[in-house]
Design goal:
about 15% strand
Length: about 400
């Protein structure tokens, strides 16, 4: 299946890679070097208007999606997002709806922000790495202090204002050592949706100045394939036996969706990619969040039409390469239907997805259990009854 003609979504970076925190494993802080501005600033209202207008005009509707990301997108200020809403209303056709998702570290989330986000129906994702012990190890403020307590207060503030945030949690070398500590800390927030993001960061070895070529090594924060797989299996077992119907875990939900005959909604699990474009603060459009570099700059929004860049030959080839470059091992794998060969950014083990062994272990473990869950659900069993059956089996 080609990526040509598929709808695209925009992940907008209104302040580029600027952030009010410094996380050890952040892959985006260095991306400011590609900005046309000497010093990254806030996306201008002129660029913002063109971005919103052309995203809507290229959408099939009746729902148009925008993801506001960073860096830390709240640095753009509340007035910026008031302008976002104003422009969306200006260009949205009658009967259509807009879906805004703000991905934040939660550091600046006060009641004023919460009221605005609630009134304008923003979905909010908050980054939190589980318990204070694990979170504060890598996610610190610019002074080097831990941020867990402040993030928890932001989550509580969001929920008090009627917003149920999603939790974005990394799986790193430390968190994979105690999966239940991480998962139960997320449950303790009261949030009902979470996403686990594996940290894989390659660094150059002394013999090579370029981490994209061998020899290289992995950062101390990076998770191993085996560690990632065991983390997922441990959390899955806890979830399926105790939290079914209470909390959704993205990977588990996506796996079940595919098993039921649906299409994955995550780009890294899809057959092809390239339909989630990045709009930087200077108006530059890039192929993907993980490929913000000169080689993958599609053009400047000030000079080109957004739809033309999204559907350019370069971008279509970029998206199709995910499927076209599958290894023989991938093509023969019974779990290819779930992972789609993994994210291209981490296909560096002779073209094989680095986390393959971990995902294979997880899918082999979870598939028969999810099949049983789905059968029991079709038979009319409630989540509570399903969990009781699973615990007794």
């Amino acid at each position: 299946m080609s990526s040509a003609g598929k709808p695209f979504v925009i992940m907008a970076k209104p302040v580029g890679s600027r952030c009010n925190m410094h996380c050890d494993y952040c892959y985006y802080l260095e991306k400011g070097q590609y900005s046309e501005h000497e010093r990254q600033t806030r996306m201008s209202y002129e660029i913002l208007e063109k971005l919103i207008k052309e995203t809507i005009s290229n959408s099939e509707g009746p729902v148009v999606s925008f993801v506001w990301h960073g860096g830390e997108p709240t640095i753009a200020g509340l007035d910026f997002y008031k302008k976002v809403v104003e422009l969306e209303h200006k260009y949205l056709p009658s009967g259509w709806q807009v879906w805004n998702n703000l991905q934040t570290n939660g550091f600046m989330m006060n009641d004023l922000w919460c009221r605005f986000l609630k009134e304008n129906r923003f979905d909010v994702g908050v980054s939190m790495d589980g318990s204070a012990r694990i979170h504060d190890l890598h996610r610190r403020d610019l002074k080097g202090s831990g941020t867990h307590a402040r993030v928890i207060r932001s989550i509580e503030r969001l929920r008090a204002n009627g917003i149920e945030p999603d939790i974005l949690c990394t799986v790193n070398a430390v968190s994979c050592e105690d999966p239940l500590e991480v998962y139960r800390a997320i449950k303790d927030t009261g949030c009902t949706w979470c996403q686990f993001i594996p940290i894989v960061v390659r660094e150059p070895s002394e013999d090579s100045p370029d981490a994209s070529t061998a020899p290289y090594h992995f950062s101390k924060e990076s998770v191993t394939p085996e560690g990632y797989g065991q983390f997922l299996i441990t959390v899955f077992d806890e979830w399926v036996h105790h939290d079914l119907g209470k909390i959704d875990v993205q990977l588990f939900a996506e796996t079940a969706r595919i098993m039921a005959g649906g299409e994955p909604s995550l780009c890294w699990m899809s057959e092809t990619c390239g339909r989630a474009l990045i709009a930087e603060e200077d108006g530059a459009i890039y192929s993907c969040d993980h490929f913000v570099d000169n080689a993958h700059r599609l053009g400047m929004l000030q000079e080109h039409e957004l739809g033309e860049m999204a559907n350019s030959d370069f971008q279509i080839a970029f998206g199709n390469a995910k499927q076209d470059s599958l290894t023989v091992a991938c093509k023969d794998c019974p779990y290819l239907k779930y992972c789609g060969g993994g994210c291209p950014k981490d296909r560096f083990e002779e073209g094989q997805y680095y986390l393959c062994r971990g995902l294979r272990a997880f899918f082999a473990h979870a598939e028969p259990i999810l099949e049983k869950v789905m059968k029991l659900s079709r038979d009319g069993k409630s989540p509570k009854e399903i969990m009781t059956t699973l615990r007794q089996s």
